[in-house]
Specification:
The protein has about 170 residues and is α+β, with helices and mostly antiparallel strands. The chain has one domain: Transposase IS200-like (Alpha-Beta Plaits, 2-Layer Sandwich). Helix 1 packs antiparallel against helix 2. The two termini are about 15 Å apart. The relative contact order is 0.22.
């Protein structure tokens, strides 16, 4: 199915990011697979803890219940990377809002923070299995690059909700 990429889901588009190639307006998307990144407001380090990790997993279960797939993910102290496959008529923005909402409730219960998230998110539509592998290697090594652990397997705030095959 060919689908026009709508620009109403607050995803960062070419108009927002200078120096990047223009975003394709049309792509083949039967069940698109995205790498999504969303950040806390003011990059507050409030995400790397067990209650937030559990809240994220509960939010991911809701996204899955709507027919989407949530694959591997990494929660960093101030941002989240997650692979999401959207059903044919699904909306990526709705899936991201569901994940953000679940985590927001948890963070607000633990801390007196009004705005947990930046209003937008970044998404990358994966176009090949090679792209998926490369992106996952980058994401899983994020805690190592940040100096939080020595090897990716030691980072506790990551996981896989369900296998997503390319």
């Amino acid at each position: 199915m060919w689908r026009h990429i709508k620009e109403d889901n607050k995803s960062m588009t070419q108009e927002h990011i200078s120096g990047r190639p223009p975003r394709l307006k049309w792509v083949y998307t039967d069940h698109p697979l995205y790498l999504v990144t969303f950040c806390t407001e003011e990059r507050r380090p409030v995400l790397a803890n067990e209650p937030v990790h559990e809240a994220f997993r509960q939010g991911a279960e809701k996204v899955i219940a709507f027919g989407n797939a949530v694959g591997t993910y990494v929660l960093m102290p101030d941002h989240v990377h997650v692979f999401v496959r959207i059903q044919p008529e699904g909306k990526l923005g709705v899936a991201v809002r569901t994940l953000k909402s679940a985590v927001s409730k948890c963070v607000r219960n633990m801390q007196n923070i009004k705005d947990v998230w930046q209003s937008s998110f970044f998404d990358h539509l994966l176009r090949s299995s090679e792209s998926y592998s490369e992106k996952w290697e980058y994401v899983r090594n994020n805690p190592v690059r940040a100096g939080l652990v020595k090897c990716p397997e030691d980072w506790r705030f990551q996981g896989e909700m369900m296998p997503i095959k390319w």
